[in-house]
């Protein structure tokens, strides 16, 4: 299958070429260089594409967690450590989870950004914000729309390799970030404002850059000490693409479930026929 002439395997490789690596076996290979405060739906995929253009190799976006589902359970452990329900992560644990990472952007990292800021004081902090009403409009049309449903719960039960880790993280991250009021408009906007205010309190001006996608390459490259690319700033992951990825995730999950359980269904059918079928012949 393809999307606008591009094969799904090429457009969404994280959904087709997944791994099952234990994150606790990692060690840090490169220094953490950039932490990005950009709430979901503030252009985090565009930022990821831009950082790749600038030569950064290890960039942890939500799609990185999707590519290696076991990471999700370690992110849940990190959340538990921040809520006194488990051991608080030290640099050792963060280096295991993010051992290959030079830049952390989007969820789940943004949900634990204060801990990452404290753990990696050498990292620069990029603060990327957008108009809050436009942000909420995008959130409500994408992430809110694709939240847990009966089908997601069924996949959590049946698709243990991928959907269970993903939904388990989602069920822990949402209340951690948004509290008991959840992701409803007024509360979500209040949390949005507080997240940005908190990072501004934690990070001095010399270590952070206040930046918007519309400003493009120059201020970003000046802050990071990189040459300005001779090409337009990338713009990717519009709302339609987000929903396309979400729908494809579910479709592939159902295919995995079908492959896993169809032999049992056939065996069950044979048993039932053996018990009851002869009555009709």
List the keywords.
281 residues, alpha/beta, two-stranded antiparallel sheet, 13 helices, globular, disordered C terminus
Give your account of this protein's structure:
Helices cover 53% and strands 7% of the residues. With 281 residues, the chain is an alpha/beta fold. The protein has a 5-stranded parallel β-sheet with strand order 4-5-3-6-7, with helices on both faces. A two-stranded antiparallel ribbon has the order 1-2. A hairpin with a 2-residue loop joins strand 1 and strand 2 (6-7). Helix 5 (70-82) runs parallel beside helix 10 and helix 9 crosses helix 10. It is globular and about 60 Å long. The protein starts with a strand and ends in a 5-residue tail after the last helix.
Q: What is the number of E strands?
A: 7
| Structural class by SSE content | alpha/beta
| Element string (H = helix, E = strand) | EEHHEHEHHHEHEHHHHEHH
Residues in helix, %: 40-55%
Global Rg: 21 Å
Query: Within the largest sheet, what's the order of strands?
Result: 4-5-3-6-7
Report the portion of residues in β strands: 5-15%
What distance lies between the first and last C-alpha atoms, to the nearest angstrom? 45 Å
Mean pLDDT: 88
Globular, elongated, flat, extended or rod-shaped: what is the shape?
A: globular
Low-confidence residue ranges: 265-274, 276-281
Report the major sheet. 5 strands, parallel
> What is the helix tally?
13
């Amino acid at each position: 299958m393809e999307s606008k002439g591009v094969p799904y395997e090429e457009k969404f490789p994280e959904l087709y070429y997944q791994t099952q690596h234990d994150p606790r076996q990692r060690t840090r290979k490169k220094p953490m260089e950039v932490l990005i405060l950009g709430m979901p739906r503030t252009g985090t995929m565009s930022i990821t594409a831009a950082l790749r253009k600038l030569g950064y190799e290890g960039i942890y976006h939500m799609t990185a967690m999707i590519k290696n589902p076991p990471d999700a359970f370690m992110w849940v452990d990190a959340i538990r450590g921040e809520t006194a329900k488990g051991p608080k992560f030290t640099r050792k644990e963060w280096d295991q989870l993010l051992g290959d990472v030079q830049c952390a952007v989007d969820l789940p990292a943004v949900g634990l950004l204060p801990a990452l800021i404290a753990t990696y004081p050498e990292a620069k902090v990029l603060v990327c914000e957008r108009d809050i009403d436009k942000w909420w409009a995008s959130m409500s049309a994408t992430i809110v729309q694709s939240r847990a449903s009966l089908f997601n719960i069924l996949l959590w039960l049946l698709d243990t390799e991928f959907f269970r880790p993903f939904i388990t993280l989602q069920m822990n991250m949402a209340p951690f970030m948004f509290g008991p009021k959840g992701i409803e408009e007024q509360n979500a906007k209040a949390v949005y404002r507080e997240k940005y205010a908190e990072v501004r309190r934690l990070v001095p001006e010399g270590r952070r850059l206040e930046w918007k996608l519309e400003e493009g390459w120059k201020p970003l490259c000046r802050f990071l000490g990189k040459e300005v690319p001779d090409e337009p700033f990338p713009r990717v992951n519009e709302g339609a693409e987000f929903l396309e990825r979400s729908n494809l995730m579910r479709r592939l999950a159902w295919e995995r479930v079908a492959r896993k359980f169809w032999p049992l269904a056939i065996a069950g059918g044979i048993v039932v026929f053996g018990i009851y079928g002869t009555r009709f012949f």
